[in-house]
Amino acid sequence: MSSQLPYREVLVDTYALTYLHSQEVRNLLVLILSKFRIHVSVLSVQEFLSYIYYKLHDYSLLERAAEVLYKLYVVENIDRETALRAAMIAADLVKRNQDFNLVDVFNAAIAVLRNIPILTDDPSRYSGYARYGVTAISVEDFIEEFKATIKA
Amino acid sequence: MKTVALSEESWRKLKELKEKMGFRSFNELIEMLIETWHLSSLKEELSRMELSFDFEDAKKFINDARRPVKKSSAEAGTS
């Protein structure tokens, strides 16, 4: 079994991270994690953990979920370089009078600095970021391509 | 290439496994064993999350959490 997808590393945004852990595709996640190095920003980890706490209201489960996420993924903190790149992107978006979400801006900055694509539920979310070098891929398409490669 | 030292017992078990699995080399067998260990570790880690949810429900939560903050009355020019 070998993956023919043209990348070995990806950044998942909060939506893609959630999708990967949802009951829809959870069974495939082990295989995906064994084939790809998956990055996720600490901001997406926080958003996902918020959802877990909202659902379960159980601190010990929240702690365990955080521990698992930090083991399975490359969690990207907001370092100096990322802050600088995110600042430039946000400034440009304001100049262009374009609405934005800060988590998306940080994802864009991380993806550009690491030169990796972003997996998301809706690639149009990052269409305004293509000018900064961001490539966004539908997480559903990624799963379908991955399924095809493991069947091949 | 690297060599490793094995006990007689481990060597016998490894040879048996190689035959059972139909591998041509010990290298292939060891790669398979490492991958299997990796997959089972990942599976074990994931099972610790004890979480089952529907994506649409999670998406709604994220969208709600990201809802823009309402402007204050001063900013909105209604003071």
From TrEMBL, chain A:
Domain PIN stretches: 10-123
A molecular-function term among this protein's GO annotations: nuclease activity
Name of one Pfam family that matches: PIN
SUPFAM superfamilies in the cross-refs: PIN domain-like
Signal peptide residue numbers: none
Cofactor(s) required, per the database record: Mg(2+)
Gene3D superfamilies attached to this UniProt entry: 5'-nuclease
Record's keyword terms, sorted: Hydrolase, Magnesium, Metal-binding, Nuclease
Protein family per UniProt: Belongs to the PINc/VapC protein family.
Name used for this protein in its record: Type II toxin-antitoxin system VapC family toxin
Source organism: Thermofilum pendens
Lineage, broadest ranks: Archaea, Thermoproteota, Thermoprotei, Thermofilales, Thermofilaceae
TrEMBL record, chain B:
GO terms under biological process: regulation of DNA-templated transcription
Protein name per Swiss-Prot or TrEMBL: Ribbon-helix-helix protein, CopG family
Organism: Thermofilum pendens
Higher taxonomy: Archaea, Thermoproteota, Thermoprotei, Thermofilales, Thermofilaceae
